[in-house]
Amino acid sequence: MATMFSPAxxxxxxxxxxxxxxxxxxxxxxxxxxxxxxxxxxxxxxxxIELLVGLDINGAKVKKxxxxxxxxxxxxxxxxxxxxxxxxxxxxxxxxxxxxxxxDLVTSIELIEHLSLADVELFSAVVxxxxxxxxxxxxxxxxxxxxxxxGLSGFRHSDHKxxxxxxxxxxxxxxxxxxxxxxxxxxxxGQAPQEQQDSVGFCSQIGVFQWLGxxxxxxxxxxxxxxxxxxxxxxxxxxxxxxRDNNMLRRVLVSEVLYSAEKLMNRWLEEKTGNGDGAATxxxxxxxxEEFLSELCMEVEEQQTVCAEEMKNPVEQCxxxxxxxxxxxxxxxxxTKGQKQQESSTxxxxxxxxxxxxWSCCPKxxxxxxxxxxxxxxxxxxxxxxxxxxxxxxxxxxQEEDQEEEGVDNGLEDSRYAEASHYSHSAEQEEEWEANV
Length: 437
Ligand code: SAH
Prior knowledge:
Number of helices: 18
Distance between the termini: 41 Å
Radius of gyration: 31 Å
Strand order of the largest sheet: 6-7-5-4-1-2-3-8
Number of strands: 11
Structural class: alpha/beta
Strand content: 15-25%
Bound molecules: S-adenosyl-L-homocysteine
Helix content: 25-40%
């Protein structure tokens, strides 16, 4: 059969579901008999789905393949605003579980023929009567097509309990509609040669059921149907990183701010030392005048005299951040470059990059934060970002080149971090993400 169809029949069945999802944009999708999770792996790329769930009676098979549903590193590095949660359960479609109720779409692809006829009745009651999804897609082999399958005797798979003709499928589907308030349309995938299409139908027959209660209908269950029932075992669950999660938004924003602020600082230094192109402008926005970086950034030195005193007790001092020590005592000193006094080791040099400049020059920063005041709010209290005392600028560690070469200043690490963090997140962050999901 694999060579009979192009694309392969199982791909056509999955593509049928994907096309339906693209047209109907369900938010909660459940795949029954998810097997190796191959349909779920395709559906996870749909941006409208917020909850994607798989159920199969064969937990070992699911466990073997479920890791292919994990987020990729790019999902962490460049998260979007989309939200996606994936859950996988081990259990039987003949049993109720209240966690799988109220879905927008339930798919049952080549599953029912693996059930005894008695279990098909339970399947109908559980899926249509209890789960009451808005739409259900059921596919099953069409036995009338079998005469076109070369060398086939008996069923298409050794585990099949039956294979229905179109009339048998139709009769079951219409009864389901009557019993549980659905309507159905019949179609299929895997076409027969033109002249036989009418006589044998599709290789896989498909029923697309729509609940007559509608999306906002009275899908309310009374009595014990409303109680929580947990008969399935949760095997896997994962929340995809999303910018709607405030922690994730902050992480991405901080990384972007560190990178952009350092870039702006380097351009400012180039302008200042005359190494730049002489007319380096910060950003050119259409319709607005050009702003000169040299007028916006400035050099700042921070006196760490408080810390120096506290160095009498180095144990206590160790591990404290600069901001712990400063208590707002930094001096803004313009034009002090080159003042290498005795206490120079207790001075840290920064370039102050105003948040307004970052916001207007860095599209990613403005898109992530929305406004300058939001930007300040999101950065405040973040240990990786040093803000000026009034909170209007980011202070980027800056050291003279000779110091850099010697590697004396601790700030060397900070500036390298800023660049590295733009490309990858630290192992520590990755661990945290894993723990969070
Ligand atoms: N839907 C899959 C293939 C299905 S094969 C696809 O499109 O690729 C049938 C699957 O149904 C198997 O993985 C089998 O383990 C599962 N299955 C059989 N009986 C079941 C039951 N009672 N409840 C849930 N899953 C069942």
